[in-house]
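Supplementary Note 2. Why include the ligand at all?

Several targets in our set were suspected to adopt different conformations when bound, so apo predictions alone were not considered sufficient. For every target with a known small-molecule partner we therefore ran a joint prediction. The input for 3,4-dihydroxyphenylalanine is given below.
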Amino acid sequence: MTTGVSPNSLESIEELRRKAESELANIVTPEDAEKFRLDWLSKKGIVREVFRKVSEAAPAERKERGREANELRDLAEAGLEQRLATLTGGADTEPSIDCTLPGYPLPRGSLHPLMTIRNSIRDIFIGMGFTIAYGPDIESDYYNFEALNFQPDHPARDMQDTFHIAEKVLLRTHTSPVQIRVMELQKPPIRTIMPGRVYRNEEISARSYCLFHQVEGLCVDEGVSFADLKGTLLAFSRAFFGDNARLKIRPSYFPFTEPSVEIDVECFLCGGAGCSICKQSGWLEILGCGMIHPNVLRSGGIDSEKYTGFAFGMGIERIALLKFGIDDIRLFFENDVRFLRQFS
Ligand code: DAH
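The joint prediction is reproduced in token form.
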């Protein structure tokens, strides 16, 4: 032994204690710890030697010396354990955290791509003074069709394969019924957009799904003209697709508007030259719109002699598919995080 201390007297055990304590305090590497274990706690270590001396002590002294020896062993064992725990990153009275290390990145969620598109459409119209309204997903036949000027046996009802819940109760096939609900509650001037979910009993494929989202728009006031419709939708398109966006207006048919048109925006990917997204046409169809049919204004309780208005409706999925270059609408509904993560 290299301690130079003879464990013969009570006094010297006290000295050994102090020595053990100071050696323990100096353990900073695993090698130091191993050296301490060999010196103090191995078969040929100091603690064993102390116990051997105790057994040789006079009977009168033995009990007290034994107690001291036990204390020394406990101190060495517990002290070593604690130092080892510190070295391997375990608990200690001193913090073993390195505050300078970079933190673990937290997995962050992100908005669903459909909500991102909806929010930017919404914000552009809010910027133009539109308010927001919502209507129920479960609608009556009256709001979904009748009040929108669909005659009972009008073939246009077949344009939208409807999920019926009960007689005259259905899942809305478009957001246009909210137009009627807004007009019933508000007097002109009205400028409102109505985002929401719509349902159609269509075969599910890469291009169509039984559920999708629309944003409806409504503007009613004295003297609202087709020029206002064009100006509003051009301003929207430039804000959404870019300053150089150009629109093409094609005649169309909807029972609730007269005249009815569909609007195409020049393909923002190829600039009109023709690509796979626009199917070489240079144009992308983005929405339906028109001047509100007088019958529809009357359904909403609005004087069709005094007021005119325009309405429009666009599909959020369609715009999201174009904007993000996605080729399968079902991806929006599968909630596969590997897909969703790409939009964070
Ligand atoms: N509701 C129509 C649809 O789902 C879209 C639409 C067309 C809405 C013309 C309108 C409109 O408000 O004026 O296909």
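The two ends are 66 Å apart (CA to CA). The first strand starts at residue 131 and ends at 132. Comparable summaries for the other entries are listed in the accompanying table.
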